[in-house]
Amino acid sequence: MVARPDLPEEILIHIFSGLPVKSIGKCRCLSKQWRNLLSTPHFIKSHLALQNTRSKSLILIPPSHVIRCVETIRDNTVSRELDLPGLWSEFVGSCDGLVLLIDNDDEFFLMNPITMEQSMIPDPPVSVKKTQGLYGFGYDSVRDDYKVVTVSYHMSDILINPVYFDKLVYVYYVKSGVWRRIKSLPRHYSFPAIYSGAFVNGAIHWLVGRSDKSDCAVIIALDLDNDVFCEIPAPSVADVDSFLDSVLLVLGGYLCVVDTLSNREGTDVWIMKDYGAAESWTKFTVSGCFGDLFKPLCFIGEGEEEEEVVLLVEGPRLVVYNVNQGTLRDMVVVDRVQGIFLDGGTFVESLVSPA
């Protein structure tokens, strides 16, 4: 028998890039050559590039140390448990398969839900949960590094008047494991509560007030490649009254504002279809009352006629809203833990390490 020649490395990378993370883990155990190949930064990036084009998975956070992971988002899907240290109350964000969570004590926890690699983030120099602050998570393509960002007041500044004080901005670099302070957020921006940011188009975004422009609501963006703030146009209806209870998030890769106040008949969901273009904001309204929790998680379905949105709402359930038909239905998740979910979000399968 004539031995088959080894396939070129690039062909192997192309073949393996289409496999799920768990299958790649098994392939790594078959030979030293494959283990080395499938662990290189080049392969991990190639695998990630393909996974970013595929459907996302869900993380659901109940008030316990066991969170739920839904890897395939469809009806009658099966969830699995992720037993984590600590009680995590909020999904801060995800990027390239990494998920950042935060608890009530201002502890940040970075993890890959598929490989189960985990990393505790050191405390930021100035607490955000114990003061008033912003935080977020994203990727710096120039430095090829992931960043955790916090924006906060000193406690003494809050007791006097936060409008007159700079907002301190700190950035945590995951690879080097250090916090660094960057240029402060200008004083005329204000945020009366604690907000998690939305990472889109290389920047983390927050919905804030601007005191020097008749107390209007604006979206600020921190470009993670150069650590510079700029403004992104908000929906035209955004004002100081409605933005306080609005939520800024990522939906289907787009910047999204969830406005719970402007419409008495339901919740308005705004999506910026063309990033940075004010006229590209489009809206759909979900009728009904959903309690204190209403969070669009992702789109499902194929084609515009089948476009549906998975919603996390108050109570032990997920619901699906059909944008075109204006209808709601429950989403069936098998083996789901009974109880409530505090928060949730989406992520992609990847081999990216949080450390």
UniProtKB/TrEMBL annotation:
Matches recorded under InterPro entries: F-box-assoc_dom_typ1, F-box-assoc_interact_dom, F-box-like_dom_sf, F-box_dom, Gal_Oxase/kelch_b-propeller, SCF_F-box_component
Domain F-box: 1-47
Top-level taxon of origin: Eukaryota
PROSITE patterns: FBOX
Signal peptide feature range: none
One Pfam family cited in the UniProt record for this chain: FBA_1
PANTHER family, alphabetized: BNACNNG10540D PROTEIN (PTHR31672), F-BOX PROTEIN CPR30-LIKE (PTHR31672:SF13)
Protein name: F-box domain-containing protein
Organism: Castilleja foliolosa
Lineage: Eukaryota, Viridiplantae, Streptophyta, Embryophyta, Tracheophyta
